[in-house]
């Protein structure tokens, strides 16, 4: 579903991604981790064309992201993205946050969009919050709305960039639970997170990055059992 081949990217003379190669099969969940500044966010943004890259190739469902002829807005509409900060539309009620992409981009009728929005809000446990403005919700609730909003577009895969790292500890699990459920249902997911409990539960593979390189790309069992690189070992010993 997602294929990243020999991707390199520079900011000026600074090489932020250095020959990165990995992939996510359909229905697979990969967790991307590594120290701050190692290039995780940059890599995930290359997948839906939010960041250009100078070398290599990224395809999503066979569509080349770096190709100038690719319709990026159309591709992005099918790739769900959830960021660290919820980025909901603050001036729109929760339900309208979920409906707007459906009506404007997917051209669904208003009733159909609202119905789908309500079903998704139900699924993330927030149906009763549909008419509130995002600012009235807790961080955990807002992040669940952000996930539901992404799902409303019927994405072919989902990208997450540290979706729980801005949350108070007591709200982390309510968001992770939604993500675990998605994973169990077979959603293709690329998840940047340091929540190793999540990785242990649902990841198929773990990618470890350092200084712009993919240092380790291993099955969950291999990664937690005996990471090959010293850098991954050090990282794990610090956060576990
Ligand atoms: P991570 O998500 O792993 O913390 P990032 O992908 O955000 O890492 O950043 C990787 C490196 O690229 C960092 O050193 C960061 O300072 C640098 N960087 C990120 N965005 C820019 C930018 N727009 N211009 C220059 N350097 C950047
Ligand atoms: Mg980041």
UniProtKB/TrEMBL annotation:
GO cellular component: plasma membrane
Superkingdom field: Bacteria
Matching SUPFAM superfamilies: P-loop containing nucleoside triphosphate hydrolases
Membrane topology term: Peripheral membrane protein
Pfam family, one: ABC_tran
Keywords linked to the UniProt accession: Amino-acid transport, ATP-binding, Cell membrane, Membrane, Nucleotide-binding, Transport
UniProt subcellular location: Cell inner membrane
Gene3D superfamilies assigned: P-loop containing nucleotide triphosphate hydrolases
Family according to the record: Belongs to the ABC transporter superfamily.
Name of the featured protein: Arginine ABC transporter ATP-binding protein
